[in-house]
Amino acid sequence: MPTFSKPERLEAERMSVATLEYFRERLRQRLWDLVLDEFRRRERNHQFTKASFARKIRRKPEQLTRWLSAPGNWTLETLSDLLLGMGVEPGLSVMPLLNNQRMHDVGEAPREAHVTGDLAAAMPAGGTLTGSFAIDSSADTSVFRARPANFTDDSAARP
Amino acid sequence: MSIHAAIQACCLDKSLFRLEPLVMGEAERRAIYVSPTLYELLSGDRIEWVRARAFLDAFMVARQIGVPRYWNAHAQIARLREAEDEVWEFRVRAPKPGMRIFGRFAARDVCVALAWRPRDWLLDDKTEEGRRRWEEAKQECRYEWRSRFPSYEPVTAQNYPGDYIRDAYLLET
After folding, report:
1. Which of A149, B32, B67, B144 would you label with B155, given CA atoms 20 to 30 Å apart?
2. From CA A32, how far away is CA A72, in angstroms rounded?
3. B99-107 and B110-118: which strand pairing?
4. Cβ separation of B43 and A108 shorter than 8 Å?
5. What pLDDT was estimated at residue A151?
6. Of B95, B15, B107, nearest to B55 (Cα)?
7. Of B17, B28, B63, the CB nearest to A37
8. Cβ distance B130 to B124 under 8 Å?
9. How many other CB atoms are found less than 10 A from the CB of residue B46?
10. How far is B94 from chain A (nearest CA, A)?
């Protein structure tokens, strides 16, 4: 069951713009993944080639490549065409998006680092690192990390 | 010490943070570790960073990742030229002007993102100034890598893109 951040985020009278933006992009990416996964499966099964698929939905192959590369310019029409071209349509249903406390949330400064998976297995006490992380409130996103002027990366010299 | 142990050490001293998808409950197929600066920005509420966070969260859970075989301006992630630098970019295009987040693969499905630039700052890499700026961004990424992992090289592909990403879908130009 999908679970998202803090209760007040989804139950707020007015959701933050950050939350709205996050879920817009999330939906775009999920739909893209859905289509790409289905497309790849059918292509592997030799049900079509990119060229024949593009012809089928009355598009140029390069347009199809753009659509499969990223969902940035997708519209509902794009989604419909791509799914229909594969002879499918989405099985639509909704599920509740649960609220749950998380240590970091959209719009909230990080406080803890969590380590999971392979790294967690190597760590004591369930793999959660506790402690404070100092936030530099003066951080300016236009200022990049400094590096030594004489830095040379020996990996660049690899054959 | 393995690269995984080195990453763990970086997490302990907070020179790296592991991103976790803000929406829980989906299988994480890939891991992304980021520098403290990126972690702070990705946890903020500036719209461009919220979009970037959603994109990176999606990268962690997506069943397929589209990776260009050759240069593809539309792909969401790509390995930068020169390939032997092993620097990848995550392309966050909206809102304009967008941004690029640079990282390297520590292992298959484990990416370490260490630098970023606004897209409009990078300019066109066909110009001399553009090439210089792209190179600077890549160099920062390499430097940040070397400062954390002096004994480890990033993934170098024998099998592209499968050595980097298990479920990669090769995008043709």
Report:
1. A149
2. 9
3. antiparallel
4. yes
5. 46
6. B95
7. B63
8. yes
9. 15
10. 8
Which residues in chain B have Cβ-Cβ distances shorter than 8 Å to A106? Answer: 22, 45, 50, 53
Low-confidence ranges of chain A (pLDDT < 70): 1-9, 99-159
The count of residues in chain B is 173
Rounded-to-integer distance, Cα A130 and Cα A128, Å: 6
Looking at residue B85, its pLDDT comes to: 94
Does B53 contact A68 at a Cβ distance shorter than 8 Å? no
For residue B84, the surrounding DSSP H or E stretch is none
Count CB neighbours of A125 within 10 A.
Answer: 8
ipTM: 0.93
Residue A73: per-residue pLDDT: 87
**pTM to 2 decimal places:** 0.81
Q: Do residues A68 and A36 make contact, with C-beta atoms less than 8 angstroms apart?
A: yes
Encode A66-89 in three state secondary structure. HHHHCCCCCCHHHHHHHHHHCCCC
B17/A141 Cβ within 8 A: no
Which pLDDT tens digit goes with each residue over B74-126?
899 999 988 999 999 999 999 999 999 999 999 999 999 999 999 999 999 89
% of chain B with per-residue pLDDT over 90: 87
Sort out which chain B residues have CB atoms less than 8 A from A95's CB and list them: none
Query: What are the distances in angstroms from CA B64 to CA A55, A67, A145, B89?
Result: 24, 14, 32, 17
